Amino acid sequence: MRIAFYAPMKPASSPVPSGDREMARNLLNALGSYHDVNVASEFVSRDGKGEHRIQRRIAERGAEIARELIIRWANTPRTKRPDAWFTYHVYHKAPDWLGPIVSTALKIPYFLAEVSHAPKQAGGAWDIGYRSAENAIKNAQGIFGLSRLDKACVLPLLDDPSRYHRLAPFTDVSAFAEAARVREKHRKRLIAAHNLPPAAPILMAVGMMREGDKLSSYRVLADALCQLRQREWSLLIVGDGPARDSVEGSFKRLPADRIRFMGSADCEQLPALYAGADLLTWPAVNEAYGMAMLEAQAAGLPVIAGKTGGVPDVVHNGETGVLCPVGNASAFAGALAGLLDTPSQLKKFSKSALTLTASENDISNAARTLDSVLRLSQETKVA
Known about the structure:
It contains 15 helices and 12 strands. It has 383 residues and is α/β, with parallel strands linked by helices. It folds into 2 domains: 2-170 and 362-382, Rossmann fold (3-Layer(aba) Sandwich); 174-360, 3-Layer(aba) Sandwich (Rossmann fold), CATH 3.40.50. Strands 2-1-3-4-5-6 form a 6-stranded parallel sheet, sandwiched between helices. A 6-stranded parallel sheet has the order 9-8-7-10-11-12, sandwiched between helices. The model has no long low-confidence stretch (mean pLDDT 95).
C-alpha cells in the first residue's frame, strides 16, 4: 500500500529532539517495513497559547494545504496516489486539519495513532482544536492506541470499538541491545570521560529542558537527590533546551562534582550512554509514556519513574523498575534509596528490561500489527 503520513504536532524531520519526534520516525520505519510511505506534509498545527484567533488561522491554512494535496493527487495516476492516510498524535492543541479532508476527497481510509480526547476542553481556550480532534477520531477507520490511559475517553466516540487497536510503545531495540552486551565497557568509558568515582552508582536523567512538565520533573529529581546527599551517586543529565538555566539552578543545592550536564545527545550516542549507567531516574510529571524510559530499558537500564499517564505501559513496576507517586520527591527519594541499597535488584531489573523490551516493544512487532490492520482495511475496501 501507498501511505500518506502526517505528524501535526512535530514533523519527523524536526531538528529538536523529543520523544514525539522519535515516535514519528519509528512509525515511519514500522509502516515502511511493509508499505510505501511518504510524508504528506510537515505543516505544524499546534497552538500552545489557546487563542481562537490562532486556531482559526491554522485551520484556514490547513484547509488550503489539504486542497493543494487533493488537486495534486487528482492529477496523478491512480497507481501513484496514496491508498491510505496515517496521522500520528492528534489532540486539542495539535489537531489534524489535513487528513479528514484529503481522505474523504480521495475516498481512502483514514488512520490515527496516539490520540487523546479531553471533554473538559469543550468550550474552552482550545475548543476549535478540540472539535477538530474529536471529528478526526469519529471519522477514523482505525485508531492505534499507544497509551491505555487514552482508551477510556476515545472509545465512546467510536461507533464500533473494534476500530481501536492497541499498539505498544516501540523502538528498534537492536542498537540498544547491542550496547547492553558490553555494558561494563560503556560504564568504564563514562567514568573516564566525566571523571566519575568508579564505585559510585551512575544515575541518568534524559529529557528536554523546557518550561512546564519537563522542568517540574527536573525539580522533583533535584529535591529527591537533596534528601540523599549522604549516599554515593553521580548524576548524568542528558538534554538541553530553553529552560536549561532553570534546570541547572534546581541542582545548585547539590555538590557540583556529583552532577554532569552533558547537553543533547543524538540517536547514535544514546545506546552507549544508557548502557553505561546504572539507573534511569525520571519523575515523569504528566509524561505520556516516555520514549527515553523505553530506550533505556532496551539497553538494560532499569528505571525509577513517576506513576503517571502511560508510563506503566512502559515501565513494569517491580519487574523492570520502580514507579512512585508522581510529583512526590520524598517518595521518589525513598524508592531510589532502596534501589541504591540493593544492587542485586538492579541487576534483576536490568535482565528483565532487556527481555521484555525485546519481546514486547521491538519495531518488528509494531510493523506486523500496523500491517495487519492496514491490509484488512484494503481487503474490506476491495470487497
